[in-house]
Amino acid sequence: MALIDDVNLFYKQPALRVFHDEALRFLALSSEKVIAQTGEVLFRKGDKASGAYLIRNGQLSLVTTDTTETQELFLGDLVDESALLAEVRYRATCIARVPTNLIFIPRHAVQRVLQEYPDLVVAWENDIIKRLYDVRITLEKVMKILPSSDQNARQMDVH
Question: Shortest CA distance to 26 belongs to which of 115, 122, 153?
């Protein structure tokens, strides 16, 4: 893939959509290309995360507790956005299901972009706040649809 393809893939990420082309080019040049073979473990649950993985092609599985609890990830998915912001630990083990091409975006590269382009700090912060607000609204809607736990308990007592 060419640099422009990586920049376009970055631009499609909600986590990076406020970054302008120059900042995205810097991130693309500062990122590492990774090829994971089928069955390869990229990281394990509890490992320190120093950045996030972006899938160029292929398929990954995030396994949380055992092999029955998985989340499948594909082209364009970003694995552990929070690692771009802060020192965190991976919340799942990540396994390649097929040969998978990835871009590893190191947190230090994101920090460097924010130092070089301080106007992005406020834009990124506002975007994160908006996305969190949208999640909150969605959760509130779901909570209205679901019966309350008190109702569930009463229904179970009746049966």
Answer: 115
This prediction has a pTM of 0.81
Query: What integer pLDDT is reported at residue 64 of this predicted model?
Result: 86
Residue-wise pLDDT for 34-81, tens only, equals 999 999 999 999 999 999 999 999 999 999 876 667 889 999 999 999
Mean pLDDT of all residues in 10-20: 92
DSSP-derived secondary structure letter, 148: P
What structural domains does the chain harbor? 3-117 (2.60.120.10)
Long-range contacts of 16-22 (CB under 8 A, 24+ apart): 17/127, 18/120, 18/123, 18/124, 18/126, 18/127, 19/113, 19/120, 19/124, 20/117, 20/120, 22/117
Mean pLDDT value across residues 124-146: 87
Residues in the chain: 159
Exposure string of 93-103, with b = 16+ CB inside 10 Å and e = fewer, is bbbbbeebbbb
CA distance 90 to 47: 6
Helix ranges (H only) for 31-146 are 107-116, 119-145
